[in-house]
Prior knowledge:
Elements: H1 5-17, H2 22-27, H3 38-58, H4 64-81, H5 84-93, H6 115-126, E1 133-140, H7 142-155, H8 163-179, E2 182-183, E3 190-196, E4 201-207, E5 210-218, H9 252-264, E6 268-273, E7 281-295, H10 304-315, E8 319-327, H11 331-336, E9 342-352, H12 358-374, E10 377-380, E11 393-396, E12 398-407, E13 410-418, H13 423-428, E14 434-435, H14 438-442, E15 446-458
Parallel strand pairs: 1-2, 1-3, 7-15
Antiparallel strand pairs: 3-4, 5-7, 5-8, 6-7, 9-13, 9-15, 10-11, 10-14, 12-13
Helix pairs in contact: 3-4, 4-5, 6-8, 9-10
The structure holds zinc ion (2 copies).
Amino acid sequence: MEINNSILTSAKKILREYNLCAECFGRQFALLGTGLSNTERAHSIFNILLLEYSKIMNESQGSESDFAQNLDIIRKIATNTDYEPANLVMQKYNESWENSSEFTCYLCNNLFIELDILVHKIDVIAKGYEFSNYLVGTSANPKILDREDEFRARLEIDSGESLKRNINRETGKKLEVLWNKSVEFDNPELIIQIQLNRDKQTVQVSTNPLCVKGRYRKYLRGIPQTHWPHKNCRGKGCEECKFTGKQYSTSVEELINPLFLQYSKAEKSVFHGAGREDIDARCIGTGRPFIIELKEPKVRSFDLQQIQKELLKNNGDKVEVFDLEFVPRSEIKKLKTSGETTSKTYEALVASEKKLSKRDFRKQQDSIKEIVLAKPLQQRTPLRVVHRRADLTRKRSIFDIEFKWINNFHFRAKIKAMGGTYIKEFISGDQGRTKPSLAELFGVPLKCEELDIVDVGKL
Ligand SMILES: [Zn+2]
Ligand SMILES: [Zn+2]
């Protein structure tokens, strides 16, 4: 760092008119030269001033009052920053001098001198959290920032660093040593927020969400994937829902989440599924991918196998999870947009309103397969969901279909289709809204009686 006359002029002015700690003093010149801490920067400037003043005083140049003024500045350096070379100069000219170090920094109110107190406060709060990296942020009462702005305007200082940045860095450095963990800017696990007031600082910590990815199988028909608020009371609770606020007694989400909340000590959880099956459909076979996003977790590493086992023990007849792993949060977006690029395989139990002869069924099935595989379905938003989704016609593909005769009124169909295909409507035709449909092709009214999803996979 090159220290020129204008820096020295500003430095002298600060020392004459204000009381600053070394960190606040050095911060005013932070943009000049890198690789030094603000305190080290202050010391570099003090060294030059001490040399200059000592020389003048030794050579007894100037008047008595000059001498007193110079000694005053050295005393200030000694008192405000306890810089040892300044203490030595003071002792040389005044044997009885003792550094009382009692002063209040005009800019930080001694925050930097007492930074260990703040660091201890953070350490105590952070003890409740598991984390491997962190980030410190500071917000300050505007009066504190205004004070420094006015100070700089008055002294025409334009080489200073912001107070908040200074606090973040110095606190971060101390925590790094204390915890032996590093600062992470992009995706910190623990976020420490310092609120700066003139007389005290408060500390708040929060944590970034933790995400666990896995697949689930749903064995119980009649439960939705996620919690559904009761229609009548919108979840507030009423007589009809026995004040549970729920439309359905439980859901995949409600069965799975509690264990994750318990293990992670998170405040809440959000369930993200790669699409969802109908409430009356099971999801079996290879299961459906999902991510549980745990908000404000206190614990970030726990035994996922254990969760899998416990869930199997408690609710294994209703739902099962497997392939659990911790994933970055960015996976949620991928999961959400994966619908169009995945295929799904279903097994449907199909009921016919009219008698189907085994002979006709056998004869028709191959040509029907050919027709549905040959070109995309035109599928208009089903009547049962059109009240909540845009009424559009979408192209959907059937990749494979196999039929199995049961009796004159029932058969099974195993259907591999593009994600987002409405299978029930592909079977029934939905009053002509899905074309072609199995009902249309078999020439009899058909209804999907049971639906299982047996595979959610890649195309
Ligand atoms: Zn200060
Ligand atoms: Zn209700």
